[in-house]
């Protein structure tokens, strides 16, 4: 919870900087650092894919001119987002489609894979919203671009089955909470 508060404070500081202020680089670094250090992140699961195919695929959405995977720094923020959307991310049985990704899987599988795919992320929403690329997150954190895969996943990638690989990592590393 403390890291989530620090992250929100860093985003607020970043947003108050005038566009001509060169301190944005420092502010960005601290946002990336707090985001990277979260023990877990939360995603909203696409309801149609979950109900029709049993897939736990995170929501990809647009914000202004950016589009990316919607990620939340806390379960509370994810829950508030889902509740604001009505039944859009709630199953008929009342289950809120919120998934948790632990730090290791996020850092070592999702971020490098999303960076390779040139995806963006939308972190939180409203006044705490921050959008950027997974590539820049990896670069700022000086993290490896290689991602950890098991044999089955490696075979999918060698065969060019990127969608199958993505579905598999979501199945293995996203836990509904």
Walkthrough of the structure:
There is one protein chain. The protein has helices spanning 2-16, 24-37, 47-53, 75-84, 103-116, 134-140, 151-158, 162-173; strands spanning 40-44, 60-63, 66-72, 98-102, 120-123, 130-133, 175-176. With 177 residues, it is of the alpha+beta class. Helix 5 (103-116) crosses helix 6 and helix 7 (151-158) runs antiparallel to helix 8 (162-173).
How is the main sheet built? 7 strands, mixed
Gyration radius from CA atoms, angstroms: 16 Å
Strand content: 15-25%
* Global mean pLDDT: 90
Secondary-structure topology with pairs:
Blueprint: H1 2-16, H2 24-37, E1 40-44, H3 47-53, E2 60-63, E3 66-72, H4 75-84, E4 98-102, H5 103-116, E5 120-123, E6 130-133, H6 134-140, H7 151-158, H8 162-173, E7 175-176
Parallel strand pairs: 3-5
Antiparallel strand pairs: 1-3, 1-4, 2-3, 4-7, 5-6
Helix pairs in contact: 1-2, 5-6, 7-8
Descriptors:
single chain, 177 residues, alpha+beta, 8 helices, globular
Care to give the gist of this entry?
The protein has helices at residues 2-16, 24-37, 47-53, 75-84, 103-116, 134-140, 151-158, 162-173; strands spanning 40-44, 60-63, 66-72, 98-102, 120-123, 130-133, 175-176. It has 177 residues and is α+β, with helices and mostly antiparallel strands.
